[in-house]
Specification:
The protein is mostly beta strands. Helices cover about 10% and strands about 40% of the residues. The radius of gyration is 12 Å and the shape is globular.
C-alpha cells in the first residue's frame, strides 16, 4: 500500500517492481500526507530496459495492480541483514 511505499523510500530502501513488460527499481515517490495516509502523486524508477530512460516516472496505469486493470504485476520491499 502507499504507506509501505512511502515508508520504505523515506528510509532509503528502494523497492523491486515489475510491470507486464519487465522489472525496475522504485527509488523515488512524490506524495502528500492525508488523514487516510500518504497520497502518492508519482513514482520514479531506475529502469534497465535498453529502450527506456535510465530514470523515469511510471505511467499512472503502471501504479495499479494488474488484477485491478493496471500493469503492476509485482512490488516488493527487500530487507537484507
Amino acid at each position: 500500500n502507499n504507506a509501505i511505499i512511502a515508508n520504505e523510500l523515506t528510509q532509503n530502501r528502494p523497492l523491486l517492481y515489475a510491470n507486464t513488460h519487465h522489472a525496475m527499481v522504485v527509488c523515488d515517490v512524490d506524495f502528500y500526507m492525508t488523514p487516510m495516509g500518504p497520497n502518492v502523486q508519482s513514482v520514479g524508477v531506475l529502469d534497465p530496459w535498453p529502450m527506456s530512460p535510465a530514470f523515469h516516472p511510471l505511467a499512472p496505469s503502471e501504479t495499479v495492480a494488474a488484477h485491478l486493470g493496471g500493469q503492476m504485476t509485482f512490488l516488493a520491499a527487500v530487507n537484507v541483514s
